[in-house]
Amino acid sequence: QLQLVESGGGSVQAGGSLRLSCLVFGYNAWKYDKSWYRQAPGKEREFVSRIDKGGSTSYNNSVKGRFTISQDSAKSTLYLQMNGLKPEDTAMYYCQATYYSSVFWGRGTQVTVSS
Fold first, then answer.
1. What is the C-alpha separation between 32 and 106, in angstroms, rounded?
2. Pairing between strand 109-114 and 10-13?
């Protein structure tokens, strides 16, 4: 079992930056591939970015070039550096950890971008 705790959300103006963190607690957390998802009001949850245990990354096209995913050397803290924020980035942001069929989610952190 893993526990994921997000932090770092907040309210910023368009063009601003935020850095989200996700603390991952549990046995063998380093084995898990980790991702960020987001969900805006009235919309489906969508993929934002992923980093696998080998360090390979992928991004939703809508955030490519603006967001950067990373993790610490122990692979127990996940980050999402968000630059050039836009109002359409407003959403609850969730981190996810996956290992084969095991999937764990955090409770989310709110990001609000005003124009």
1. 14
2. parallel
pLDDT, one tens digit for every residue, the chain (115 residues): 899 999 999 999 999 999 999 999 998 888 999 999 999 999 999 999 999 988 999 999 999 999 999 998 887 899 999 999 999 999 999 999 999 999 999 999 999 999 9
Question: What token pair was written down for 57?
Answer: 């990354």
Distance CA 36, CA 114 (A): 21
Tokens of 112: 């609000």
Strands (DSSP E) along 8-88, which ranges? 10-13, 18-26, 33-39, 46-51, 57-59, 67-71, 77-82
